[in-house]
Amino acid sequence: MSNTIVVGYDGSDSSLRALNFAVDRAKAEKAELIVAHVLEWSPYAFLTPTELEERHKRRGEELDRANKHVLEPLTKRLSDTGVKVTTELRYGRTADTLCSIAAEKSASQIIIGRTGGSGIAARLFGAVAGSVAQVATVPVTIVP
């Protein structure tokens, strides 16, 4: 297992708190940091071929926009932290994708923020942080 930390980042306040915590942990552990941004994607099997083609085109545009407006500015901001930072930008179910990235990169832990949702919907369907904690094969730190 490498000394690599995966942190989920979506631009929200909770993900920023998780990122700041992850940077501190990476400095303390002399670890590399992978900032993962996952765009939710669900397949629509009932779309026509033309609709699927348009959807895949939009998918590429969304990836470009997320990279330009989320990850590139973040990478620039983190460049003076003294921590080696790389990014991963993917489509998929957020919890599963974060765990896949951690497995592929042999990460030692995952750090993720939580929004603190306690409503009935969050209890029924589960929050991303809770799902990551249930699925991950490495330790997970949930930053409130």
UniProtKB/TrEMBL annotation:
Xref: CDD domains: USP-like
Q: UspA domain: which residues?
A: 1-144
Identify the domain of life: Bacteria
Recorded hits in SUPFAM superfamilies, A to Z, give:
Adenine nucleotide alpha hydrolases-like
Which Pfam family, any one, appears in the UniProt record?
A: Usp
Report the sequence similarity comment from the record: Belongs to the universal stress protein A family.
Write down the PANTHER family for this protein, in alphabetical order: STRESS RESPONSE PROTEIN NHAX, UNIVERSAL STRESS PROTEIN UP12
Q: What is this protein called?
A: Universal stress protein
